[in-house]
Structures are given as C-alpha cells and as structure tokens.
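[stage:ingest] chain + small molecule (adenosine-5'-diphosphate)
[stage:ingest] validated
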Amino acid sequence: MTNRIRYENVSKYYGDVCAVEDVSLTVREGEFLAVIGPSGAGKTTILRMLAGFEKPSGGEIFLGEREITQLPPHKRDTGMVFQDYALFPHMSVRENIAFGLKNEGLPKDEIEDRITEVLEMVDLPGFEDRKTTNLSGGQQQRVATARALAIEPDVLLMDEPLGALDKKLRDQLEVKVIRLQKELGITTMYVTHNQEEALKMADRVAVMNQGTIEQIDPPEKIYHEP
Ligand code: ADP
Ligand code: ADP
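[stage:predict] done
[stage:export] tokens:
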C-alpha cells in the first residue's frame, strides 16, 4: 500500500505552548483515519498544518512524494471541512462552491459541471441558487463537504464536521460520509472528540493527548479512553 500522507517529526509551538510534539504519522492511500482525543490535544493543529493554514515549528509533511511544508494552501490538493462550515453567508450555494474553483482558473462550464456533480454526491441536487443562510444545519454541512470535494482533492480533511448536529442527523451523515469516502476512495483525516463516532467510521484511529499520538490502531484495538 502506498502512503498518501506522511508527517515526519512534526511539532508546533504557539509561543511557549506546545500544541503538537514530534509527531510522525502515515496515512495510506484511500484510508479513513480518525483523530480523537480531548479538547486541546492538538487534533485541529495536525489538520491545519496539512492544509497549510499553520506552519510547523519543526519537521516535514509529505503528500505522496511531495514535501509540502512550505507550499501555500491552494497548491496542496487538500479539501477541508470546518467544524462551523465556514460558508460565505451572503453567497449562494453555487458561489460558495465556485469560489475555490475560480481560484484554480477553471473554465466556466467546467465549474458548473463540477457544482452539479458534487451537489449530487451530497444529495442536494438543484440547490445551486439557494442562500446558505436559508439551509438547515445538515444541509449546510453537506454544502461544506461538496465545496471541499469540488476541487477534486487528493486528501479530504474534516474537523469535527458533524459536531454541531443533533444525534439523529449525525447518525445519518456518518453513514453518508463513509459511503462517499469509500466510493471516491479518497484518503481522509477526520477529527472528532466523539470516540464512538471514530470507532464506527474509521479504518484506523489515532488517539492524541497533549500534542502526541498515544496509540494508532484499527478500531477493534482501541481500548484507550481519551
Ligand atoms: P484540539 O483540536 O485537540 O482541541 P488544538 O489543536 O485546537 O487542539 O489545540 C492544541 C493546543 O494549542 C491547545 O493548547 C490550544 O489552546 C493551542 N492553540 C491552538 N491554536 C492556537 C493559536 N492560534 N494560538 C495559540 N494557541 C493555540
Ligand atoms: P477545537 O477544539 O475544535 O480545535 P478551539 O475552540 O480549540 O477548537 O479553537 C478554535 C480556533 O481558535 C482554532 O483556529 C485554534 O487555532 C484557535 N485557538 C485555539 N486556542 C487558542 C489560543 N489559546 N489562542 C489563540 N487561538 C487559539
């Protein structure tokens, strides 16, 4: 199996605060890795460094063979879904999804095709002209996922993507996310503080605590209570 993501001795300090300490980690092509652990463990920082929103204080990060530590976010082929979705409220669903695609310089009709395609993937066909503020929480979540997938990323990064939703909706979208991930075969890192969710969804689970990975194993081997 080839590795898609590799962290080598990666650390991140904010002043004196050590958010991530000497983490080495590989994620295989097509794998779904959940990252769990208590608040402040460094989970979000791990993802943000891969997406390019934070620079490591030390170490290197590879996507495939490429060392990406110095690349700006839009050059990394990572799609990220944020806990609060980070949709532009004054824009339509179409404009939200098109935003990153225009930055890539894609032609107009290709952008429109991609938007149609990703909205179908997340079961929101025909939602192009809707205002994001008029959508339910679950619909906003799916638009955020569609937007991340529209750039056809090598890697999907999800930071507590279902954390704001009620239990019933979360159960439904967990199933949906796994199905989509397997269909696309897209390498995924999924941050959650919900151990049950992680064990249900992931191929492997990384347990973080105080900036380090304490255990990384398939769900059936995770006994640790984070
Ligand atoms: P988690 O996602 O597991 O809750 P984070 O990665 O958000 O953990 O945070 C890890 C540690 O780094 C925490 O102590 C947090 O307060 C600190 N931290 C995160 N981002 C910043 C920042 N921008 N400035 C200062 N400290 C930060
Ligand atoms: P999470 O627990 O989901 O990581 P947080 O509430 O810890 O979310 O952090 C939300 C945002 O605030 C993140 O972008 C993080 O980098 C930033 N942040 C976290 N802790 C600090 C801090 N001590 N100082 C400045 N920014 C922080």
